[in-house]
């Protein structure tokens, strides 16, 4: 089997540039974990650089043709190929509560869902690195005040230090995607426990950004806050004007309000 036929519905754009693949693999600091899970290895362009590192590399791939290809070409991956949909897979069937890193040149059609699943499993994921559609990588890393700052930025940065690393051109892929790509990395904060309820923070952030042009006083009406709380100056702001810390402080105030 020479190569895998690219399938559009699976977001398959295979990276041709070896140096980009190596640079992505090298973003991991390998500290605090012994295993790495690569999502969507395709034909293994990134996998082969991971296999050179002092770490156990697992891959999860939805495409059976790619799985077959990997089995033939990478003997070292034996027993470490998970032929499943990452979004539906119970990660602990393999990792059993252990710490592991996530890496990938991700399928762009499910990239935000990959980040949300990572946040859900953050207790086990100290490091996450990979390539997204450029706008998505930027959005995760954006700070308050920017147009791209949104739900993904606030929730990722509540638990992780994030860094946009470099941009990758469309012509180093086969077939080339319509958009540029961006490589980013998230490292879990030393103390990532929140001083407020996590579920409430998610609700506040999502509700506020659903109507991002409105002030919080208007957008958070559905949360039935007391009139006294709603007089607080913070409610004059629009969501993109609040930093991550300010969203956490707002959530604490809402909690104290007793809703
Ligand atoms: N990493 C490879 C392939 C990138 S294309 C490279 O850089 O060349 C994205 C890959 O993700 C494809 O191989 C696709 O089959 C796989 N994929 C798509 N959806 C997936 C899912 N839900 N779970 C696991 N893999 C998926």
UniProtKB/TrEMBL annotation:
One of its GO terms (molecular function) is RNA binding. It is found in: Cytoplasm. The keyword Ribosomal protein does not apply. It is an enzyme of class 2 (transferase). It comes from the Bacteria. Keywords: Cytoplasm, Methyltransferase, RNA-binding, rRNA processing, S-adenosyl-L-methionine, Transferase. Its EC number is 2.1.1.182. Belongs to the class I-like SAM-binding methyltransferase superfamily. rRNA adenine N(6)-methyltransferase family. RsmA subfamily. This is Ribosomal RNA small subunit methyltransferase A.
């Amino acid at each position: 089997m020479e190569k895998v036929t690219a399938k559009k519905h699976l977001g398959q754009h295979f990276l041709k540039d070896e140096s980009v693949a190596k640079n992505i693999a090298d973003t991991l600091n390998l500290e605090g974990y012994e295993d790495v899970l690569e999502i969507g290895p395709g034909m293994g362009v990134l996998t082969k650089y991971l296999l050179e590192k002092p770490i156990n590399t697992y891959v999860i791939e939805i495409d059976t043709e790619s799985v077959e290809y990997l089995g033939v070409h990478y003997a070292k991956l034996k027993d470490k190929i998970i032929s499943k949909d990452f979004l539906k897979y119970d990660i602990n069937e393999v990792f059993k509560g252990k710490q592991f890193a996530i890496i990938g040149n991700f399928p762009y059609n499910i990239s935000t869902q990959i980040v949300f699943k990572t946040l859900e499993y953050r207790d086990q994921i100290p490091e996450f690195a990979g390539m997204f559609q450029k706008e998505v990588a930027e959005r995760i890393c954006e700070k308050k005040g920017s147009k791209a700052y949104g739900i993904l930025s606030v929730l990722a940065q509540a638990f992780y230090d994030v860094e946009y690393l470099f941009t990758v051109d469309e012509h180093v892929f086969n077939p080339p995607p319509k958009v540029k790509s961006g490589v980013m990395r998230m490292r879990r904060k030393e103390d990532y426990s929140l001083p407020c309820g996590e579920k409430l923070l998610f609700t506040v952030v999502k509700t506020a950004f659903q109507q991002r042009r409105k002030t919080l006083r208007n957008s958070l009406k559905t949360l039935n806050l007391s009139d006294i709380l709603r007089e607080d100056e913070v409610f004059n702001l629009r969501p993109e004007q609040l930093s991550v810390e300010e969203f956490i402080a707002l959530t604490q105030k809402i909690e104290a309000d007793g809703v």
